[in-house]
Amino acid sequence: MEWVTGNLDLIGSLTLDHLRQSVIAIAAGFALSLPLGWVAWRYRLLRGWVITVTGLLYTIPSLALLMILPVVAGYPATSETNLVIALTIYAVAIMVRAVTDGLDAVDPAVRRSATAVGYGDARRFWAVDLPLAGPVILAGLRVTAVSTISLATVGILVGVTNLGYLFTNGLQRRIIPEVLAGIVAVALVALLIDLLLMLAGRALMPWARAEAPRRSSTAAEAAA
Amino acid sequence: MIEFRNVTKRFPDGTVAVDAFDLVIPSRKTTVFVGSSGCGKTTLLRMINRMVEPTGGTVAIDGEDVASKQAVALRRSIGYVMQNSGLMPHFTVAENIATVPRLTGRTRRAARARALELMDVVGLDTAMADRYPSQLSGGQQQRVGVARGLASDPNILLMDEPFGAVDPIVRAELQRELIRLQRDLDKTVVFVTHDVDEAFLLGDQVAILAKGARRLQFGSPSEITEQPADDFVAAFIGAERGKRALRVKQTPHGPVLVDAEGRTQGVLVEGGA
Tens of pLDDT along B101-148? Predict the structure, then answer.
């Protein structure tokens, strides 16, 4: 505990680095997964390919990816870009499937109804399909966020500094509280982001909460 | 006026849902398509707003082929009410009703005002405006569906078994309400159902359809009851049973009408219209 109180500045700045790297990767992964997931949903023939190929990305060992990417793309392995791009790839691997599943989960009757009252295709996608796919996409995004934040620590092995530093440094110097502080900090960051995503979901999709629990009470009202 | 001229719909798998169908649907009347499920009645309805494109023949509204109109604009100009309401689960009641006005560019405020006005018209408490469809009963959802269909004040209202999924008591209530609405609004209503009683209750004109949308008979409920085109129609409308096969029974208080089971269905009033 003494180590922690004496190094709050270090933990604070590492946490900010960690947050920055993770949040950029999560956001980029989400942005890339929307069109990819849509393509997989819209074009049956491409579906198997897109889902399988993006899913396979997750099987690439992270350390290997962090060392291969700089060679292929020509940036230094120690740059933050290297880690952010690797994390984005893993985020895409999880998110594409969530987007496709989410769009699949939209009731075809609602979609048909939207068309029948005069939504054009593009407008229907943004106003009907995407919001209704929201709960499933959000579930995928929350898994992605937590997994990305935890995975980001591996960056320290190729020299990208973040909360992972507390693990390697703590182990080398045999300071167990430092390692524990790292674990707790990563968990707190993950919980914080997860909480923010959950709150954002509630704010953006108030209808999703109205759906299930009220049903029994409205049935009673109707009977009355 | 909606005209079907030699309309055929053959689906890619080879089934012929509609085979050379001809019909003129008069304006400002309620026309009901009634038939067993799979007879092509819903396909006919969906061809009016181009949800389904015919593979042969034309559908015309006031003499203009619908195929020549832009599909999205056409659909916005025609009210559509479907089974299970078809409401957007993520829109509130008011947003659902305001859908078409919003699509056609009305401001949020104007569209909401219109939605509240329509809630009144269809008999919904405006206190429900900000609830979600899942928080309403089936009958209330169906009223919202009707209000949404009326929101852009269309000349034509298409109704695809709109009361099929609600219980009989609510259904009867909604049917009475629709009759009242139609008296006030005077729309061209095309209504699809498999329920003969509903068809005869609501329709000014009823088309009885068999598989392939083959027209067995088209006429007013009275015409069809008085003179069924053939034995199939007679059986389909139940001419030999229930409250459509009544005989006179003399009682000390005057003549009454009884059905095949001997239950008294009404009193015979002499000299009535």
Answer: 999 999 999 999 999 999 999 999 999 999 999 999 999 999 999 999
Identify all chain B residues contacting A219, using CB atoms and an 8 Å cutoff.
Answer: 137
Interface probe for A, chosen from B91, B134, B141, B166 (most Cβ of A below 10 Å), is B134
User: Per-residue pLDDT tens for A120-137?
Assistant: 999 999 999 999 999 999
**Predicted confidence (pLDDT) per residue in B9-54, tens digit:** 999 998 999 999 999 999 999 999 999 888 999 999 999 999 999 9
Task: Give yes or no for residue B94 having a pLDDT over 60.
Answer: yes
Q: Which residues of chain A lie closer than 8 angstroms to B136, CB-CB?
A: 218
Cβ atoms of B146 and B118 within 8 Å: the answer is no
ipTM attached to this prediction = 0.86
CA distance A75 to A65: 13
CA dist list (Å): A10 to A20, A24, A172: 16, 21, 17
User: In this complex, is the C-beta atom of A109 within 8 Å of any C-beta atom belonging to chain B?
Assistant: yes
**Inter-chain CB proximity B136 and A218 less than 8 Å:** yes
Q: Where are the beta strands (DSSP E) in A119-192?
A: none
pTM, to two decimals: 0.84
Q: Confirm if A40 and A103 have CB atoms less than 8 A apart.
A: no
- How far is the C-alpha of A74 from the C-alpha of A84, rounded, in Å? 15
Instruction: Return residue ranges of chain B for CATH 3.40.50.300.
Output: 2-243
- pLDDT, average across residues A11-18: 94
Q: How many CB atoms lie within 10 A of CB A118?
A: 23
| Fold type of domain B2-243 | Rossmann fold (3.40.50)
Instruction: Identify the three-state secondary structure at position B193.
Output: strand
List phi, psi (to 5°) of B138.
Answer: -55, -45
> Are A117 and B136 in contact (CB < 8 Å)?
no
A-B contacts at Cβ under 8 angstroms? 77
Distance, in angstroms, between A45 CA and closest chain B CA? 19
Q: Domains in chain A, ordered, with CATH?
A: 2-208 (1.10.3720.10)
Q: Residue B50's closest chain A neighbor by CA?
A: A116
